[in-house]
Structures are given as C-alpha cells and as structure tokens.
Amino acid sequence: MSNKFIKVHQTSSRLRYKYFLLKEKFIDEGILKKYLEKIKHVESVRINKKAYSIIFEINKDITSEIESILSKLTLDELLSNCQNEAVCVSCISDEEPSIKGMVRASSALISERFVSNNLLKASITTSASIPLLIDGSKELLEEGLTSKVLESAAVAISIYRKDYLAANSTNMMLELGEYIEETTVHKSDDLLKELAKPNVEEAWVEKVVDGKITEVLIKSNEVQVGDIVVVGIGNTIPVDGHILEGTGSVNQVSMTGEAEPVVRYRGDRVISGTIVEEGRFRIWAEHVGSDTATQRIKHYIENSLNEKSSVQLKANKLANKLVPVTLGLAGVSYIFARDFERVASILQADYSCALKLATPVAFKSTISKAGHNGIMIKGAKSIEALSNADTFVFDKTGTLTCGELEVISVESYSDDWTEEEVLNLTASTEEHYFHPVAEAVVKAAKERGFVHMHHEEVEFIVAHGVKTEVKGKSVVIGSRHFVEDDEKIDFSEHKDKINNSLKNGKTLLYIGYDEKLLGTIGLSDELRENTKESISKLRKLGVKNIIMLTGDTKEKAKLIADEIGIDEIRAELLPQDKAKIVKELMSEGKKVAFIGDGINDAPALISAHVGISMSRGADIAKATADISLLKDDIACVVEAKEYANKTMNLINNNFNATVGINSCILAGATFGLFSPIVTAVLHNGTTIGLLLNSIRGVKQ
C-alpha cells in the first residue's frame, strides 16, 4: 500500500510535499528527517508535522526518486535504518558546550580595568561583545523581538554610555549564564542517552557446519528470527526471545531498574540489553535488530527529545509575549527618567530564558529517572496527559491479573485415557510452543511427573491451536472454535460438563484425538497480589474513575471488581469494543488513560489521551503506547502517575517562581533600584537556579 502525498511546490533546487503519513501518531519527524537526508543529492530536509509538510533542498533533479521513497516508506524501515547506531537520536548535537565565550568576556572585563585609554577600552569591550551584538541583530531581523535582542541592546547602550564596566560585566554574566544553560540542557540529554545502551556487536549463534551443529560468532545485525543464540556468563543478551535450554540469573538493571538479578528458566522470556550473571542459555530469537527492546527504547528517546508539551509551548508563547512588555517599560522609563543606565538595567530583566529552558529540562529529567526504573515515557506530552488523566481504564487480562495462566483442572472424557495421560499428550504437543496456555500446560505436566509421548511434526495454527499425529491418529488442541467448528469434532455429548467448567470461571483448552473430544484442561489467571493496593494509590493521586474491561461474564467480572475496588465494569466485550468505550469516555469530557497488553488493545491505546502498555504485552501494543513498562508490575502504573503529577507540580512551581522573581527584578530595575550589573547577576542567577532545580528533578 502506497502513502498518499501531494506535491505543493517545485523549483530546480526545492521541493515541497504534503505527506499524509505524518498524520500517524507514532511517526517521529526526527527519525524521518534523518532518513530522508541520506538520499543522494538532498542538501537538507525540513519537516512540519502539524502541517504534514516536508521541504527538500536538492542539488539535482531527483523528484521521481524522492516520490518513490515517500510512497513506499514504512515505520519499520525507519527504525531499521537506525538499528546499528549506538544512539538513534538525530536531534542532539554531540558538541560539548563551549567555554570560549565566557573566557573572552571575562578577559575583556579584567583587561579593561588596567587600561586608561578610552579608545582602547572601547575597542576591548566592543570586540568581546561583537558575537552577542551580531546574534542580537540577526534575531531582530529573522525573529523580531526576543530576549537575545534585549540583552544585546542592553550591552550596546552601556558601550554607547562608555560604561565599559557595566557592558563587560553584563556580557560576562550572559556568557556564564549561557554556558551553564547549555551544560544543563546537555546534561539532561546525556541522562537520556544513558538509557540507549550500545548494541551488542557480535553474537554466538548455532549453525550447521559440515553436517554438525556448531556455535559461530557473527555480527549481531545478521541474527535472524528463529536463530538459536548462545549467551554465557558476563555476556549481554543481543535479542529478545525465549530460553530453550539453561538456567541462570540475569541482571536486568539496565532495562528494568531491578537491582537484584532474576533467575530465568527454560521457557522464560529474556530481553536484549540484559546481562547473564550466572549460567548459560540457548535462546530462540523472537525479535532481532530494530524490533528488540533496546531499539524501541531508542525510538522512545527520539520522541522524548523532539516532542513539546502544551505547557512547554505555553511557556514559550508567554516568554515571547513578555519581551515587548520589557521593551515597553524600558521606553517609558527613558521618557520619564532620561536615564540610559536604567534602560540597560530593565532590558536585562527578561523572562525568556528561565521560562523556555527550565520546562524541557524538567521533562527530560523525569523521562530519564523513569527510564532507569523500567518506565519508558515517549515524551513530554505523555507526562502532561498522564498528569491530567482522571479516568483509568484497565483491560483485565495481563494488567489487573498476572497474565500467567495456571492449570487448575484436567478432565478426561474417555475411559481409555487417564487425566495424567491427557495432560502428558497435551504437554508433549505444546512443549515447543511459546504461548501462555502452552507454558502453563507444560509446567503443570512437569509438576505431576511429565512423561513425553512421541508425536509427529506439530503444525501451529495462529490464534487457534496446534495439530499433530500420535500413533497414526490425529491430535488437535486449541480453542472451542478451532476444535468444534474448524475440525468438526462433536461436543454435544459433553456440553453439560463444559458449561459447568465455564460457569466456574475456568478458561478451557480443548483436546481432540482420533476425531473425538478427548478432554479439557481448565486454566485460571490469578489477580496480581498488589492490584488492590495499586488501585487505592491511584485514587489518592487524583484518579476519579477506575474502569475494568473484560470478555468475562458479568458475574465473574463483578466478583473481581468488588474484591479490588473497581468503580465500573464492562463485561462480555469483543476486542473491537475497547476503543469504542475509550472514545465514549473521552466524548464525556473525561481524561482517559488506558492500560493494556494485547494485540487487540492497540486501537484503544492509540485512542486514549495516554496509553500504557504492560511489559509482557504484544509488540504492537508497545509500539502504539505512550508509556511502556519494562517491569511486569502493576505498581509501575502508579509510579508513572506519581512521576507525571510531581513533574507538572515542579514545572508549575518553576513557572510561578520565574514570573514572580523576574517581575520583582523588572520592577526594581524600572524604579532605578538595580544597576545593569546587579540586574544581570539577579536575572542569570534566577535562571541558573531554576535550571538546576529542573535537572535535579522529582523525588520518587
């Protein structure tokens, strides 16, 4: 399927398109820009996501090539494009903050004190101030009145007045402030970069060489889905997958924030970027390259650095609106006092720096801290949306419940087969199938003394079940629809037993043998131990409505809701109903957070104001969610809400402090209480203090 686009404008060196793939919520303009800039003969690319616009500067007519790429481009290709980079962040400069400006300004301040010649004083001061004066002039022409324009005007007035001490002191304070600001922002970006761990460059993979299975060392980007990857003590796991063989401990601190190593057994899932501390594993590679957890983290980081929240945009707009106010006060002050020194002081008292810089730094600090605790937040908008959320909608399975099924009953409908034999037959067929039902059956069989039954090759039918042969007779295992409708096995003789099991809340797995219903295995999914506590904490954090969605019967859903304190249940739902319910709640004016983990949860995760995916969820759920949890713990939902609430409180406090303190400084400068030097010290000191407060971030 091709992407829709419209060519809006074309010259020999410039192309502009309306590109409607940019309407997709999860397309990130930073990654797209970096990808398109790699096209040969493209000089630069500008993207405006809100306007769905892409502008190409080109040095050769490559229109047909660009349009071909635009029509075929996919999100997977974008992510694959950056899978081999240590950090897939195109919007961060690796350039360290420069101290040159501060050295230049301080040198002028000191040397001017030892010079008596006024012409030489003027030359030294002007030379040191030229970069600021040029930047201010450029911004005036390109962007109008900005804080940089006011600052350069203040220094220019001091030079004009021959107050070289004020000019050099102000310039040095501005350079010092700018250096600290750049360092602070750079540090906040570095905090995020730490989350994007470098890829494992090589991996040991089992290959058939000369008819024998041999471990071969290959580049990690050459690992294919289905390969058997071998990882030993001290090595980093390069793929997401399941353990086929081996027992040991895995350090997951880099991915989940859990300090204690966790023990992993056969059948357990492991994620890339974690380290084997004890033992040796043979891992079946389920996700490789750009699909691994580490690559998804990099994509989250890209989003978190590019995205601006509404409160951030509000701060920027307010800062820009207050520049003319400062300029106006300076003009009025001059009319009444005819004092250029006072004008220079007023021009120093600007709101812009603290308003524009402290907010994004606070967001980045929270994203970094949450990431180190296994909570991946896609950007500033996600934090703001979660803070505002007053309605939490939980999909039951895998969120409120453990998502780990447990065998609680086995029934044989044949006198020739015992319950143990029915269980052994099912486990023998399903032991190589990594699915929650299969894993529960195999686990139960092992606990009861598993005896393997020989079978032919197993055929896996996605979302239905499995088929094989034992002793020349067909075996079908799976859902009722698969066994009864697709495989035409008669259920009529055992309907009463089946209905009784279903009324008792069991999830049933059906086993057919030799075209007859051989028996059923009853499974149950238990509530998480801390579900009730987590629901209670969410209420204390300001959540007014908590809703549970489930396909269970109303009776069973009500029992769970009463036990954990759910306000409202929606039961007997079809998968497509979830997104519809979320939209209904939003239309009622509720701020909705949806928490889910399945493939069918993706539409609801996208539709909600903020979507949260559980750690064991489907990849499509993680890709579409605003917040992805790396720890399988519902308490992380509470932690995420706490982070969001505290971050917005920090930003609001910074905002009020900025307006309050700078207003006082501005008033003092207007009435002649502060000299330009004092104003510069107070203004820059306030900005630096607020920046440091933002990077310190929230306490958890």
List keywords for this structure.
single chain; 700 residues; alpha+beta; 7-stranded mixed β-sheet; 25 helices; 26 strands; 49% helix; 21% strand
Description:
The chain is elongated and about 110 Å long. Residues about 80-95 have low confidence and may be disordered. Helix 11 (about 340-350) runs parallel beside helix 25, helix 12 (about 350-370) runs parallel beside helix 25 and helix 15 (about 420-430) packs across helix 16 (about 435-445). The protein has 25 helices and 26 strands. It has a seven-stranded mixed beta sheet, with helices on both faces. A six-stranded antiparallel beta sheet has the order 6-5-7-13-8-11, with no helix packed on it. Strands 16-21-20-19-18-17 form a six-stranded antiparallel beta sheet, with helices on both faces. It has about 700 residues and is α+β, with helices and mostly antiparallel strands.
State the gist of this model.
The protein is an alpha+beta fold and 700 residues long.
